[in-house]
Specification:
Low-confidence stretches: 341-346
Order of helices and strands: EEEEEEEEEEEEEEEEEEEEEEEEEEEEH
Radius of gyration: 28 Å
Distance between the termini: 80 Å
Number of helices: 1
Mean pLDDT: 89
Strand content: 35-45%
Strand order of the largest sheet: 1-3-4-7-12-9-10
Number of strands: 28
């Protein structure tokens, strides 16, 4: 991590201020970022950067994971150009112990291993009022992983039934700037979905499965509505920016495809951290569903937390049969059979 491998930006987009809030790598596959909430990094003309007292996050996009990082650092006190030393502690969120570099130490080393995170954090702290850490040899290890979309399980339907071993998900929609998510619960065909409660049990009406893929598009089926019905979206984005364009459940057979779109696409979302979160978009458009006045509709003006949908696996259907598993004889029965066989053999001799 350096000015040679990426660039720093100011939160107010000032090109003259030396105070920055984010560094982004030049490499974009993947792109690594170091970020904080405010302009708590100071970068001098030589590319030396100071990390002031706060929490910093290291992030990579979906489909990659940070496995570790390390850097050396020295603590300073005062303004950005001050050479006065200070005792500074770096505390990783996970994967490594807190490290303190005293004012008399030449440097200290932070080493974090054993991670598999899209985002990981560390904090800079000190008793000195204007303390900061100056890192060197900052190296981050990254590996390729399955994306959140690739980790979703899909199923098939045939003869009005779901396939054996279907994985069922609860599906919950975010809410504007709030922290709650609201489950998608089927009540009846051709009815808008109320997003008024933040929790529900894993009843059939709250369970959904995916059929298809993200290239051709997914069908979403509800367990209580049965395999021949799907979640569809109106092609007309009625209301203000789609505010009354309500997705509903309808039978797949005989669906009016001029009025309704039957398929969905998923886009990764970072608006709800630590979850399999996506934007659920109408196939063939960039329009994502959104929590509009406690109902699931659309917002054609963009996507945010209220457009974010979280898939949580909660149940799997297992079908009993030789095609799906193995029947075993109880251990005590096997012992009796073996004993009887040995007795027969001994009698013959």
């Amino acid at each position: 991590m350096s000015t040679a491998t990426g660039s720093f930006v100011n939160k107010q987009n000032s090109t003259t201020s030396a105070y920055k809030y984010k560094w982004s790598s030049t490499e974009t596959a993947p792109q690594l970022t170091l970020e904080t909430a405010n302009n708590d990094m100071w970068v001098d003309a030589n590319g030396t950067y100071h990390l002031y007292k706060t929490t910093f996050s290291l992030s990579v996009p979906d489909g990659y994971a940070i496995t570790g990082y390390s850097f050396n650092y020295t603590g300073f006190e005062g303004s950005s150009t001050s050479t006065t030393r200070a005792t500074v502690t770096i505390t990783p969120e996970k994967g490594g112990a807190a490290v303190t570099c005293s004012a008399s130490d030449a440097a200290a080393t932070v080493s974090v291993t054993g991670l598999e995170e899209n985002t990981t954090r560390f904090s800079v702290s000190s008793t000195a009022a204007k303390a900061n850490a100056v890192p060197t040899n900052f190296v981050v290890s990254i590996k390729k992983t399955a994306s959140a979309i690739e980790r979703l399980h899909t199923t098939t339907t045939a003869n009005g039934r779901f396939a054996a071993n279907t994985v069922w998900y609860t599906v919950a929609v975010g809410q504007g700037q709030g922290t709650s998510t609201f489950p998608l619960v089927y009540t009846a065909d051709n009815q808008p979905f109320s997003l008024a409660r933040s929790f529900t049990n894993a009843v059939p009406e709250a369970l959904w499965c995916l059929v298809g893929d993200n290239t051709a598009g997914y069908r979403l089926h509800n367990r209580a509505a049965a395999a021949n019905k799907i979640l569809v979206s109106p092609r007309e984005m009625s209301g203000t920016t789609g505010g009354t364009a309500y997705p509903v459940v309808l039978p797949l057979d005989g669906l009016n495809t001029t009025t309704y779109e039957s398929l969905w696409k998923l886009e990764s979302s970072k608006d709800i951290a630590g979850a399999a979160a996506f934007y659920l978009c109408q196939n063939g458009t960039n329009y994502g569903v959104n929590n509009r006045d406690n109902k699931m509709a659309f917002w054609t003006g963009g996507k945010d937390r209220g457009s974010t949908v979280v898939f949580t696996p909660v149940a799997v259907d297992f079908e009993v049969g030789t095609a799906y598993g193995e029947f075993k004889t109880p251990l005590i029965r096997r012992r009796k059979l073996l004993y009887g066989t040995l007795r027969s053999l001994l009698r013959r001799h």
